[in-house]
Amino acid sequence: MKVIIAPDAFKGSLTAEEATEAMQTGVKKVFPQAETMCLPVADGGEGTLSALISATGGVYKTFTVRKPLGHLVEAQLGVLGDGETAVVELAQASGLMLLGPGELNPMEASTFGTGELIRHALDEGHRKLIIGLGGSATNDGGTGLLEALGVRFFDAQGKLLQMNGSSLSLIDKVDVSQMDKRLVTTDIRIASDVENPFVGENGASYIFGPQKGADTKAVKLLDEGLLHFADKTAKLTGMRLHKLKGAGAAGGSAGALLAYCGARLESGIEVVLEAIEFAKHIQSADFILTGEGKTDRQTLDGKALLGVAKSAKVCGVPVFVISGAIEKGTCGELSEWFSELRALDDGSKTLVELMANASGLLCRETAHLMSEIKNSDLFL
């Protein structure tokens, strides 16, 4: 028997790698001789870096870069098992997790550190990049990362600007003459599950600004700033980011990468599955185990588990889900893609208890499922 174990993170309790380990232990309790292949997944947000490095046998490299408010932090860059592809996770340098509750301020936050990580990847000789966008503390339209890559922004008086959310509306001139020339020969893939445009009521500022600390006034100013930058970008590059689907990811960083760095915007889970050669590995599998913190209708909107299910369906491999919780009333829709759905939350424990004991509960539920499979002789 061959079992592919490919969960996403159980946010707040287990990383994708920890969930994979718990599931594997559960499988081995019932089928000690089973061949298990661990391929943790992610959809472009936080955890994408670790999932890719774990699944491909890659390595981490650590660099000192700037956090959103300018302080220094040790951030990790990943190199896949192929030795060629570098992985930059925006959250490593520009993420919410790097700031305390009292520090959240998208008017002042910058993606400069993410640009530094990209530059380090180029310095290391990598010309294939995967950039995971998610969990950002920024709303600077990616101007900070562009600044780190050599783009210069000037105000109407010719003064060089230091970019952040509040600087967007001050841009009078964008000078790309000193932009890192290595970007021209670099294949950059953006891994993201965000479909929001750059500006407007469904754009980066209005949808994600509040969770980054922006009040109503700041949201309006940030959106106006992004609109101003989008206008300047259209004149300079010919690309209109304004309503472009997905350009609003990570406070507009996706838009900057698209317009100035020649990046391609792709489904985060599809990028991850391709990088870990998921389709090849599942061809000989008997079934797949996956899961996440909560499986709900959003799962069907291009999240990691749906990507796993789509690949499995092509090969006719059944997929079993064990998640922290399953949204009520969604099993009918989800059953089109998944053979069975199970939740660790049976109503007998508090959320705190579930999260504190997630690994043990996941291991036990996996073993329970394996026992049922064994008794049914389904794969024997």
From TrEMBL:
**Entry superkingdom:** Bacteria
GO biological processes: organic acid phosphorylation
Q: Which GO terms describe its molecular function?
A: glycerate kinase activity
List the Gene3D superfamilies.
Glycerate kinase, domain 1 (3.40.50.10350), Glycerate kinase, domain 2 (3.90.1510.10)
State the species of origin. Sporosarcina newyorkensis
| SUPFAM superfamilies per record | Glycerate kinase I (SSF110738)
Q: Please state what the protein is called.
A: Glycerate kinase
Task: Give yes or no: UniProt keyword Chaperone.
Answer: no
Keywords on record: Kinase, Transferase
The UniProt entry's sequence similarity note says: Belongs to the glycerate kinase type-1 family.
